[in-house]
Structures are given as structure tokens and as C-alpha cells.
Amino acid sequence: MIPAPFNYAIIVEFRYGQIDDVPFDQLCNALHNRWEASDAIGKFDGHETAMDNFDARLFFYTPQPQETLAMADPIFKDFHFLRGAKIYIRHGESEHSFTETEIIKPDGERVALSMLDEHQISTIPDWGSRRQSFKKAEAGEEWKYSLKNERAEKLYNKWKEIDYIITAICISGNFRIRQT
Amino acid sequence: MNGLVDINNKDEHETDDEHIDLPPEMIIWQREEMFRNSIIIPPKISGAEAGDLYIIRMENAAIIRKAANDIYVDCNMLLEDNVAHEQDIELLRSEIEQFREYFIEWVAGFEKDEYSDEWGLF
User: Fold this and answer.
1) Residue A155 and residue A162: Cα distance in Å, rounded?
2) Any CB–CB contact under 8 A between A118 and chain B?
3) Which residues of A154-170 are buried (b: 16+ CB within 10 A; e: fewer)?
4) Which of B5, B8, B6 is nearest to B81 (CA)?
5) Is B46 in contact with A131 (Cβ distance < 8 A)?
6) Cβ contacts (< 8 Å) between A86 and chain B: which residues?
7) What's the rounded Cα separation, in Å, for the pair B68 and B93?
8) Phi then psi for A100, rounded to 5 degrees?
9) What ipTM was estimated for this complex?
10) Fewer CB within 10 A of the end CB, N or C, for chain B?
11) Which residues of B touch A142 (CB under 8 A)?
12) Can you list the alpha helix ranges (DSSP code H) found in A21-175?
């Protein structure tokens, strides 16, 4: 529920994926400090993170979403893990009310998300950035670990493709997915 | 009547292919459930690889199987309620089928280690 006098909720959703909490805490502190200033528009309402730090969300309430995001932009740009974040701007009381979606591009700029571009709407990171086995293969058994990892990578990448389709359907049903 | 079809009282002329109206909230919930199931899967794959422990691998594999299967089943509802086009759902299903084959290959590589499952499952 959006508290009065705000009409909009903003949710910034992103993959954090770091064991170290310090960069995330720095982001939250910077946002808290900015929104304590007298000229702040809206309210920074905190954050949530997954238990394994895989993904996280920031919450804002505001009467003027674009002005609030413009205040947050310089802070967002300082934190590289926010690149690729999806920003949901929701208007009205109902959690199912009209929502606009924006994305933070690799250069740190925000842009409205085109729902028809499937390559923009899944934020699952590439396998290359995922952790591989911590266990060191014994001499002569490297092939076994390499095979295991290849299979896991293939599986992971297949689901990444599937997630494009699912996300497209979930975000904006009733449109055709481009066949590639 | 809230628009749901009581299958026990279905008219004999009706077929299973006929449109079933569900409340919008339920469709939205269903979509969100699919989305939630989808984002569970990648961290479970990478998590299974990270520790290289048989129990964790099996546990994650079971979670992945359930999430992917739930999405596969949810496709019916998306079709019945015209939330998605049939072609999109067919594409999604065929991709999940391929994922299932990759999954079987992946699971075949799991090796039992010396740790026993305290819950007696794996």
C-alpha cells in the first residue's frame, strides 16, 4: 500500500551477486543520506536482499517519480552492480495497478524498457560471471570437472533463454515473441 | 457464479478447449508465480556447482525440477485465459522439453560422496 501523500511506488530490482555486503551498504547509506536532505522528493523506504545476495530491491515512495529518480541517478551511477537494474514505477494503490518499467543501461543511463526487446528484459547474469566449483580437481580428473561444468553451463544458458520467453509473457502477455 | 467452470456440471456439448474465465487477480498471480519459479532456477544451478556436494546438488536439482515442471503446467492456464498466444506457449514448452534433456545429462554426472543426508532423503 502506498502511504499518503505519495501516489507512486518505485521498486529498483537488480542482481547483486556479491558475498561482500559493504558495497550494498554504501549504496543504502548514500540513498538514506540523500533522502534526509530537506529538498528530497518522496521517501526512500529501504531495501531487501535475498539470503544468498543473489538479487536485491530498493523501495521508494513519491508524488513525482521522475524527479525522485533524477535525484537517485548520480548515486545509482556510482554503483556498477546496478547496471541492468529494472525500475518499476507503479501508480495507484493496487499492487496490480499500471506500471512503467525502466532499465539502467551499461553506461548508467536510465531508459524506458521496450517490452518487445526480449534481450533487455531478462537480467540473469551470464554463466561466465557465476562461481564454479570451489573444490580442486585431483590430478588426472580435471576432465571430469570440466565436463560437469560444461553440462551445468549448457543447462544454465538454456534456462536463460527460457527466462526471456517467460519474462516476456509475465510482463506483458498477449504479444508475440520474436523467433530468433 | 464467478466465471469458473464447474467441471462436474459441464454441459455435454462443452469441450475442454473452451475458454475458461478466471478472475484477473488469479491470472496476475499465476503470471507472477511463473516469474518467481523462473528466477529460482539459475541460482540453483550455479549453487549446485559451487559446493560440489552431492546432497546440495540433489536438493537443488529437485527444486529446479519442481520449478520447471510448475511452469510447464502453468502454460495450460495461460492458454486457457488467452494470457499468451498458443505459439508462444508452444515455444516455451518445447524449450522446457529441451531443458529437461539437458537436465537429465547434468544429473547423470552427479557422484555420490562420503557425506550422508541427515534427513534421509538423498
Assistant:
1) 11
2) no
3) ebbbbbbebbbbbbbbb
4) B5
5) yes
6) none
7) 10
8) -100, 150
9) 0.79
10) N
11) none
12) 22-36, 65-77, 118-121, 142-171
Grid look-up 501516489 returns: A7
Chain B interface disruption, residue of A162, A167, A172, A178, most B CBs within 10 A: A162
The pTM score is: 0.53
Q: For B11-68, what is each residue's pLDDT tens digit?
A: 444 444 445 566 777 777 887 788 889 989 998 998 888 777 899 999 999 999 999 9
The reply to whether B116 touches chain A by the CB within 8 Å rule is no
pLDDT < 70 stretches in chain A: 1-4, 93-98, 113-123, 129-146, 171-180
3-state secondary structure at position B17: coil
How many angstroms separate the CA of residue B8 from the nearest CA in chain A? 30
How far is residue B93's CA from residue A48's CA, in Å, rounded to a whole number?
Answer: 33
B63-94 confidence digits (pLDDT tens):
999 999 999 998 887 787 777 778 778 888 99
- Whether B113 shows a pLDDT value over 60: the answer reads yes
Structural domains for chain A = 8-116 (3.30.70.100), 122-180 (no CATH)
| pLDDT value of position A54 | 82
